[in-house]
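Hey team,

Filing this mostly as a record. A colleague (T.K.) asked me to run one chain through the structure pipeline before their review meeting, and I want the input and output archived in the tracker in case anyone asks later how it was produced. No errors, nothing strange. Just documentation.

Input sequence:
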Amino acid sequence: MISTSTDITANSQFPAMPVTRGKEPKITVCKGRQAPYACDGDILYEGLLYESNRMKIPVIIEPAKCGCGGSCRRGPFLSLPHMGIFYEGVKEDHITTILKETILKGKVLFPLLHLNPLQSIRSDLIWEKAGGCIMAMDNSYCMVRIAEYLINFHADESCGKCTPCRIGIHQLKDLIARIVRGEAPEDAVFQMESLIWLAGQTAYCAFAGKASNIILAVLSGFREEFEVHAKEKRCLAGICKIT
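Output structure:
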């Protein structure tokens, strides 16, 4: 039985605020890759399914595209793609309030709002470095293309002082671009891992490690997508046009 939700909009320093909503209300929930989930993401997911059906609220509830071992410190996370926001630290007794206030009324619950998705790089991704969690706002994303976006961002930020960063990061950028296009060799994932290690372990400063670690997080969480791109020349998400 799902417990009755506490109204987290009451007596809050930050009242709920209306936002512009998209066409289709949707919630995606992080569930990690392995059970049991330390953050109770699986309980939250089942609770949202149960309560939305009980309340007859028209909302899509799906597992998020999440690369996580289930032990992140700030989870469980859920995203609302139609509103462009993440909630963090969501508990079972928040479910009813989220459905009533956010889904039905289009309000943001500030006590739950995740304020810093992937710093300033992308607002539709969460990367919890300490726990190794990376989560996309919408589960229709191709994570190979997400990796391409991230490495392009970091390649442009590199100062170019040392060889591992100046050359290694750009080689990684070119390799991921070829994986996206379906032009990479079958051992492209192994080559990625080698370049990530080289950049992270031998560069002059911490920047190359930061740039390569997030790519490693995407690769570790969604390795199958990279393997299928490289070996089978197709996109599991059905987004990339590979000829």
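Quick notes for T.K.: The first helix runs from residue 41 to 54. The mean pLDDT is 81.
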